[in-house]
Amino acid sequence: MTARLIMKLEVVAAEPTTPDVLRVVFRHPQRPELPEWTPGAHVDLRLPDGKVRQYSLCGDPADRARYTVAIKREAGGRGGSLWAHANLAEGGLAHVSAPRNNFPLAEGTRHILVAGGIGITPFVSMARSLAASGADFALHFCARSAAEAPLLDALRAVCGDRLHLWLSGEGRRLDPALIGPPAPGTHLYACGPQRLVDAVQARADADGWAPDHVHIERFAATLDENYKPEPFDARIASTGEVLHVPADRSLLEVLRENGFPVASSCEIGTCGTCECGYRNGTVIHRDHALPLAKRQDRMMPCVSRARVALTLDL
Ligand code: FES
């Protein structure tokens, strides 16, 4: 677990990109450059009550002086977006983490990007990078109307005719069958509302896409409601201490109660902040952040558990 750098950044612009999406630009008040990032990365915005929200960076990774995010006002959300809309204004300050990338572009020869609504944000920098490198890509963007499609002008400029706009208010909805069957070197990405990403995933599964060629970024946990957590023991490799994790507690909670300051953010298995190493155990991975290739020895203790026992690399 590595603690992430938290910076106090200045808001240099905060303006609506649609009626309910605020585009916010940050810079460091003293330093000319911010930590670098790659397309698909996000930052944590720390709220005054200590809670954390993740927002994808949607500017240009080559612009080291600024971070840009787009924040949708979610009236029924957990309060972070309402705070941001009410408080982030030009000249103000906010606590923002160094970027982390759980949704990177894969090595491939063709890329199919599918976004719904505010789920477009990670794809802006991805499309910019793909266009700059001359890569073969298509971006399918689903929204109710052009007026409600965030960052549309920037996308049109970057993508040209590689942007396919699906506006439900005009009766044009994306049929996931359009994605087509898998092809060598082709990667599929989706980000947006649950229904959209589930439809893309279901279509990819039905068409036989390899799991490591399908990349899904979720806004919320999709934990199996029928899953019944079982208690287990977690042994700490460095001390030999054994911590019991009851069925109704997360491993993250038990670690914290026992003095292990594990960094966390979403606590629903989507951000990757709490990642830690393990050995000697069977882990029930329940997150949406960890790539398949890392699941042999890494886990997300906010949602993942073990069968009977495991040893943690702590
Ligand atoms: S805190 Fe976000 S994945 Fe665990």
Automatic annotation (TrEMBL):
Residue intervals of the FAD-binding FR-type domain: 4-106
Family matches, as CDD domains: fer2, PDR_like
Residue ranges of every copy of the 2Fe-2S ferredoxin-type domain listed in the record: 232-314
Pfam families given in the database record: Fer2
InterPro entries: 2Fe-2S_ferredoxin-like_sf, 2Fe-2S_ferredoxin-type, 2Fe2S_fd_BS, Beta-grasp_dom_sf, FAD-bd_FR_type, FNR_nucleotide-bd, MRET, Riboflavin_synthase-like_b-brl
Keywords: 2Fe-2S, Flavoprotein, Iron, Iron-sulfur, Metal-binding, Oxidoreductase
PROSITE patterns according to UniProt: 2FE2S_FER_1, 2FE2S_FER_2, FAD_FR
Listed name of the protein: Phthalate 4,5-dioxygenase oxygenase reductase subunit
Organism: Methylobacterium jeotgali
Chain's gene name: pht2
